[in-house]
Amino acid sequence: MSDRIANAMLRGKVMSAEEAAQFIDNGDKVGMSGFTGAAYPKALPTAIANRAKEAQAKGDSYKIDVFTGASTAPDCDGVMAEAGAINYRMPYQSDPTMRNAINAGEIKYQDIHLSHSGQQVEYGFFGPNLDVAIVEVTRITEDGHLIPSSGVGNNVDFLDSAKKIIIEVNEWQSLELEGMADIYRIQHLPNRTPVPIINSGDRIGKTFIDIDLSKVVAIVETNTPDRNAPFKPVDETSQKIAGHFISFLEGEVAGGRLTYDNYIMQSGVGNVPNAVMAGLLDSKFEKIEAYTEVIQDGMVDLIDAGKMTVASATSFSLSPEYAEKMNQEAKRYRESIILRPQQVSNHPEVIRRVGLISSNGMIEADIYGNINSTHVAGSRIMNGIGGSGDFTRNARVSTFISPSDAKGGDISAIVPFASHIDHTEHDAMVIITEYGVADLRGLAPRDRVAKTIAVAHPDYRPLLEEYVERANKGRFLQTPHDLSTAFSFHERFLANGSMKQA
Amino acid sequence: MSDRIANAMLRGKVMSAEEAAQFIDNGDKVGMSGFTGAAYPKALPTAIANRAKEAQAKGDSYKIDVFTGASTAPDCDGVMAEAGAINYRMPYQSDPTMRNAINAGEIKYQDIHLSHSGQQVEYGFFGPNLDVAIVEVTRITEDGHLIPSSGVGNNVDFLDSAKKIIIEVNEWQSLELEGMADIYRIQHLPNRTPVPIINSGDRIGKTFIDIDLSKVVAIVETNTPDRNAPFKPVDETSQKIAGHFISFLEGEVAGGRLTYDNYIMQSGVGNVPNAVMAGLLDSKFEKIEAYTEVIQDGMVDLIDAGKMTVASATSFSLSPEYAEKMNQEAKRYRESIILRPQQVSNHPEVIRRVGLISSNGMIEADIYGNINSTHVAGSRIMNGIGGSGDFTRNARVSTFISPSDAKGGDISAIVPFASHIDHTEHDAMVIITEYGVADLRGLAPRDRVAKTIAVAHPDYRPLLEEYVERANKGRFLQTPHDLSTAFSFHERFLANGSMKQA
């Protein structure tokens, strides 16, 4: 047995994943660790999937409701979705098998702001308690305290709420991650006080999670890596977008709204953000801080280059190479990296206070600056809103960065009317594509149109201009629309596979 | 000269509104006091309108950009809009003349979250400074401190930002309002600290606004009432909605999510909220607190009845009768009423901390719970989002309350796809009409549909069900839509004047 389980009572609870899965009943509400492919349970999901398959073979029902921090991995969301083991899922996912099951109507998926998800469990929206919490840790102390592995997510909320606790102790995770987590419990209503973070790097809590040990029903040992997807090399389009983003920051400095040593970054995940971070390496910006959701390769590079002083997040989202480096050098990186509960990393209060500039991807923006982050053609969910709403609504400046088209040109990122709206015209301030920066701040809706069309792909600009001309013939000119053709781009895509004119 | 101007230097600046208006140049950005018909300048707007008319008569241009707290009144927004004196307007309005000018494309209107509006001025989105601030007060102290009148709004931000200050001293406002305001300056970036409000009733600031006296160019004396629109008597529909709302609160208590002495209210303005407050008078709820935007008649009644212990807001929105009472008895009411800057009354940080239940009106909700608060048929702005986004996003529970139809049945409040989205499916939790409560918490989009249709007007339920049937034939079932008929209700309304089938 691993010496990572220092508590004697809990050593007595070690068992196989198959045995532990017997504590999870049909219909249970199960809160799991896991955020963007890090720190999810590695063994229980497969054991749960197997239980579901066995039940189905006997003609029985076995489905659970799964709550996590955010997305997990094929060996978590994927295996459970494939086995038909999931009834309801929140607050975020990105697994292809699960996505297909959701869009086929087989899994009920609720897409919830990440900062709201743990709170809604506390508030009792899903009943007074979760049934089970399954949480991966790097080690259990003699006192039974849990040392988080590569992410914190909603673990505190789930462990506090659940009637039963199952802990996975993953030897693959570095012991030197201890000290990186900053565990602060948001008080429950009606006794809340301010979250005392003034600067991104402030540590306000403990390095461990204390739990009610009497709720622990099983400990499972694992030795399995996180899912760490390699990033694609930065392509030309991403580089152009990154260039425009950094020019935008330079413009903020020139306009007296930012200084070179006062840029606080929030960044979504992906190739474009990675290109932005690569660009920042060679920029004039210094003492960059990140107050964000996940630690990405580019932030590690900025820390190594002395450009970034601190990165606060709730989890890692690293390539295999960088995950290896993090595991080797966690002791050094924990000086400048903090992992917080996602209620804290994504808290509106702290986001507004520190004054960060948010930067998130999108599926489409409409001509007035409403943003669709989640659905293709209004109905097909991709991943979810994640933390983009938490950051966008409360940022000093909110930006959305995206290539101007997708699917080889068949989808335009700028459309007449967004087919699903996750961020409204009241929240989105700046839209950046490879064609430039649409700065919508201070503009009435009609004055935004020329800006958004200017960053659309040139192939789509005439179609957008035709729409605007039609819309402006209407009777009401605050936000002119021609509702009968507002979704014409999407209708063409659904009919012909392309938003372009047939 | 009024003894309400105790500062000797400022007494030397007293002049007529016409003289003061000479300080306001064509193209100026002008920040005015005023929030929901209270505390707006009473004399300068007419003087500005007259300047515009004179300029037009000479063939000259004279238009200004107008920033306020929220809506004002016919003798402020109305006269300026009528004179063509306004180029750009933010963050909220409700004046019929101004609304028509906006929808005719004559005024540029940007609809901004009320908690963001002052902050965006600070951030420099409109340039480094406003040109002029025009602020109504009840009195100026010997030290030159301003005692707010019947509202605070964005006054602090505007007075801090503007290069020139014009003060209107309104004798109509009670001197005993002094002590009601709690003026706390949100620190400017990068030096922000927590807003230290723990309970709705906490006073954290001063009773006056201190300003840079050297910026004051004019003092104008007035003696004019606020615009205080009488409320209509509570009708049957409002009463039914109020009954459902209070049943919903009772259900929260039964579900262990609320106690009878722990209801913190936020409430939009209008007949339905007034009916709710009347209903609360006879309910089991005690020690009610309001952490909201405006003080309404119903709150005064709740205070008088000993049911409400404290009401925190930024302004009054009272009927003439209640405004009179407030002026008479301000000394008594200031024990339980606090008026804060709107950055504080509407601050996401405080809203989330106190755990209030928000309650706002709407124009329409769609079957999945996206809310349109602002636009008729996607293009015609009514008023604006106001603070509904600040409260909805950060509430413990967010509710929207509305009659199920409007315009004698020609408009349905439940539609297939909201024609403008101000609050997304991630934010709206509960929708209440005279037909009941649609509690969408914890539900995937498809499971919300039966709930929203159940609170639609019966005349529209078959049409909504037909839409859902069509939508469910699509390929993707997370959020099924038939985009070609998603706006069919609105298209019928625009074509035939009714959302009903021809």
UniProtKB/TrEMBL annotation, chains A, B:
One of its GO terms (biological process) is acetate metabolic process. InterPro entries: AcetylCoA_hyd_C, AcetylCoA_hyd_C_sf, ActCoA_hydro, ActCoA_hydro_N, NagB/RpiA_transferase-like, Succinate_CoA_transferase. GO terms for molecular function: acetate CoA-transferase activity; acetyl-CoA hydrolase activity. Residues 13-221 form the Acetyl-CoA hydrolase/transferase N-terminal domain. The keyword Transferase applies. Pfam families: AcetylCoA_hyd_C, AcetylCoA_hydro. CoA binds at G268, V269, G270, N271, V272, I363, N383, G387, K407. Keywords: Transferase. Transmembrane segments: none annotated. Belongs to the acetyl-CoA hydrolase/transferase family. NCBIfam families: YgfH_subfam. This is Propionyl-CoA--succinate CoA transferase. It comes from Corynebacterium alimapuense. The lineage of its organism: Bacteria, Bacillati, Actinomycetota, Actinomycetes, Mycobacteriales.
